[in-house]
Design a protein that fits this description.
The complex is a heterodimer of chains A (334) and B (298).
Chain A lengths: L1 H28 L4 H6 L5 H10 L6 H13 L13 H36 L4 H15 L2 H15 L22 H7 L3 H38 L2 H8 L4 H38 L5 H10 L3 H29 L1 H5 L1
Chain B lengths: L2 H26 L1 H23 L34 H37 L1 H15 L3 H12 L3 H28 L2 H8 L4 H37 L12 H7 L9 H28 L6
Helix pairs in contact in B: 1-10, 2-3, 2-10, 3-4, 3-6, 3-8, 3-10, 4-6, 5-6, 6-8, 8-9, 8-10, 9-10
The chains are: A mainly alpha (334), B mainly alpha (298).
Chain lengths: 334, 298
């Protein structure tokens, strides 16, 4: 197992290095530089030259790249031209918000998806099955931001049950030692802040979690249907094992293997979807920051954030493979 | 197997063929019919929008103020939008934009992916290695972020949106086609063709490629659905330019967000249009996948 993980980690290095070069060149190809965005259209050539020198934009691209990548390896992602703060700091500030949101979405997707998919498979061919399948097809095709709007309109604006935007009511006196607001509420034993942070996560979490939910439902259903007809399930039934044992140990454990893979693959979807969801709910996370940085042509932020996303994405995929090995002894042996 | 048995099998196979067999099953599949109906309706609306739409999509036809936007009525089925334009006509014209964006980005992505996949699958060796590492790099950025990046680089506009969505699909098609071609190139008919001296170029282009295309067609249909949704998402983020006269569903949704409280239906119509268009291609793609999968053959 350790050798497998080590080999996979080594394989990631050239991919990420190549990606960093591509990202660096891509950022250089963006129209209208950060200087223009910073100084406006009527800046004098002298001012432009001075700012370019300040950010090192007047040197050859490979020198700038080596400079940048050297800094990246040391944890320095440059300075945001929009907020004038270090990119790493902005990342540390916004990423916990998105992790909280993505986890909420995943809990929703898996918590509702696995039971629904399992039930649909057990009641194969009934109205419950058809309803689940049809619902999951709608879930896959509905645009995240449209769903977000509808949820926001119905539950926040009309019914007033949940907050419309943000992560925390500004009127609540809350401390944030970790940046994960729900966790912070627990740590500081501030139950009001804890509940408020949770309430702010419900609607965006559902909006972001709907596509993963639909995918989890479909995979679970298909997988349980496959397993139900396996020989070992019939053998277990013939042996006279208790139905609950068969369902738990034979059907569900085997059926969940593909679900684990699929859940892991949602990491990319969640990070991408967060850009839209966070924009709808003005949720101050990673995705909202990326969206705002596009209009401001904030090179350093886009570079750093996208590279960071890629690292997270490939590491999560690696973790999924490891988890797969832990659940499925056959993979571990191979 | 005796000769007679083999002949019997051949006779049974002959009138079917995977294509005709798939067609027969598609016609009997209610999911496929529902999907096809939605797709046909969507394409028909897109093509006939100038004749179907009762009003021009880009000119005000009524008086509106930000606080009073007329809802659905007999003259204006979907009401007016924030600039006093007929919402129904705009949704109809929007089908045209979604169809163009979907088809163009699919074709571009397919062309790029086929080129890369063909390179990798046909040459193998270091070409294969280099192409697949590039594909790995592209796939290591989540799709929407990748599309945002490409669209931002090209400068906001509908052409940028199309290229961005195509770029996201290039690695997907490349990997799919390469895998198919690798599997096909180990098959008996390739061995047979090689043995009788068919040139390698003709084996790849005349035998391996056509036989590898089935999953690509399925993926293409499903990609049309995601392309429509992704295009709406990019437009929503302001990446499709700022020409307000273009009735693009995603932008219509984004533009009406300020009037969510006074005219919530303005967001519902383009939103549902996106859902149904994408649903049609998804249903059709899923049933195509099943119909073309030999596993389901009976």
């Amino acid at each position: 197992m350790a050798a497998f993980v080590a080999r996979r980690l080594v394989l990631l290095v050239p991919i990420l290095l190549g990606l960093s070069v591509l990202l660096f060149l891509w950022v250089r190809a963006l129209p209208g530089g950060p200087v223009e965005a910073l100084l406006g259209e009527r800046a004098t050539p002298e001012a432009v030259a001075r700012v370019r020198g300040l950010y090192g934009l007047d040197r050859p691209w490979y020198e700038q790249y080596l400079d940048w990548i050297g800094g990246v390896l040391g944890g320095d992602l440059g300075v945001s031209s929009r907020t004038q703060r270090p990119v790493a700091e902005e990342l540390a500030r916004t990423f916990p918000a998105t992790v909280e949101l993505a986890l909420t979405a995943l809990v929703f997707a898996v918590g509702a998806g696995v039971p629904l998919g399992y039930l649909a498979a057990r009641r194969h061919g009934t109205w419950l099955d058809h309803l689940t399948v049809t619902g999951s097809l709608f879930g896959i095709t509905v645009p995240v931001f449209f769903l977000g709007y509808m949820l926001k309109f119905a539950f926040a604006e009309k019914l007033g049950l949940l907050p419309t935007d943000g992560r925390q009511d500004p009127l609540i006196d809350a401390e944030h030692p970790t940046g994960f607001y729900v966790l912070d509420g627990l740590l500081t034993q501030n139950m009001e802040a804890f509940g408020d942070a949770l309430a702010h996560l419900v609607l965006p979490g559902i909006a972001l979690g709907t596509i993963p939910l639909a995918i989890v439902v479909r995979i679970t259903r298909a997988s349980v249907l496959d397993v139900l007809h396996e020989d070992y399930v019939r053998t277990a039934e013939a042996k006279g094992l208790a139905p609950a044992t068969i369902r738990g140990r034979h059907v569900l454990r085997n059926a969940l293997l593909p679900v684990v893979t699929v859940v892991g693959l949602q990491a990319g979807l969640l990070l991408g979807g967060a850009v839209l969801t966070e924009t709808v709910f003005a949720f101050p996370g990673f995705g909202k920051f990326v969206a705002d940085s596009i209009t401001a042509r904030d090179y350093a932020v886009l570079q750093g954030f996208i590279l960071f996303t890629a690292v997270v994405f490939v590491l999560v995929n690696l973790l999924v493979d490891v988890a797969y090995g832990l659940i499925d002894p056959r993979v571990r042996a191979a | 197997m005796s000769l007679a048995q083999a002949e019997g099998a051949a006779v049974q196979e002959a009138p079917g063929g995977l294509g005709r067999d798939a067609w027969r099953r598609l016609r009997r599949d209610p999911v496929a019919i529902a999907g096809a109906a939605l797709v046909v309706a969507f394409v028909a609306v897109a093509l006939l929008a100038p004749w179907l739409a009762p009003y021009p999509p880009d000119k005000p036809v009524g008086q509106v103020t930000p606080t009073s936007i007329p809802g659905p009525s007999a003259e204006h089925w979907f009401g007016l939008d924030d600039l006093g334009r007929d919402e129904f006509s705009r949704v109809l014209w929007g089908a045209r934009w979604s169809l163009v964006i979907g088809v163009v980005s699919l074709l571009l992505g397919l062309a790029g992916g086929t080129l890369l996949g063909l390179l990798a699958g046909a040459f193998g060796g270091w070409v294969d290695g280099a192409v697949m590492r590039l594909v790995d790099m592209m796939l290591s950025i989540p799709g929407l972020l990748f599309a945002i990046g490409v669209a931002a680089m090209l400068g906001a506009g509908l052409d940028a949106v199309m290229i961005a969505i195509a770029a996201v699909n290039v690695p997907v098609f490349a990997r799919l086609l390469r895998g198919q071609m690798l599997a096909q190139s180990r098959s008996d008919y390739v061995l047979a063709a090689t043995a009788v001296g068919v040139p390698r170029r003709w084996i790849v282009l005349g035998h391996v490629l056509p036989n590898s295309l089935t999953p690509v067609i399925v993926q293409g249909t499903l990609t049309l659905a995601t392309a429509i949704v992704e295009a709406a998402g990019l437009a929503f983020l302001g990446l499709s330019g700022n020409d307000p006269s273009i009735p693009e569903w995603g932008r219509m949704l984004a533009d009406t967000q300020r009037y969510l409280a006074s005219a919530p239906l303005l967001a519902v119509f383009p939103g549902l249009a996106i859902v149904f268009a994408a649903l049609g291609f998804t249903l059709l793609g899923e049933s195509l996948r099943e119909a073309l999968d030999p596993k389901y053959r009976r």
